[in-house]
Design brief:
By secondary structure, this protein is mainly alpha-helical. The chain has 5 helices and no strands. The protein has helices spanning 2-15, 22-34, 38-49, 68-88, 93-105. Helix 1 (2-15) packs antiparallel against helix 2 (22-34), helix 3 (38-49) crosses helix 4 (68-88) and helix 4 packs antiparallel against helix 5 (93-105). The termini are far apart.
Amino acid sequence: SSADAAGVVLNLLRRMNLDVRPDHYASAIRAACHDGRWKMASDLFSDQVDPDSAGLVPIDSTLGYDSTVELGLYAIARQSEIESQESTGGSSIPVANRVFDAALSMSIISP
């Protein structure tokens, strides 16, 4: 699938010690969402905004159809919803919390 191919490319770039750019993440997140692989897409998006994983690489925060931010946050919401339905029978409060936590991690506040 296209999500698997994108994962292979990202792993190859990392193994070769090459930069994984926001465009690479965007393509992989888009492919994972297209395939319904919400866990993969949400993990990729979370890795992208995690300073310990990808660093403080700026991402395109433009909102609109098919934007990386919207797809990533949507993937986090879908994966969180699946996990909450499996564990608690459908509580939706953790879904919103996880999405807000991801949005908060995208913000850098200067002291």
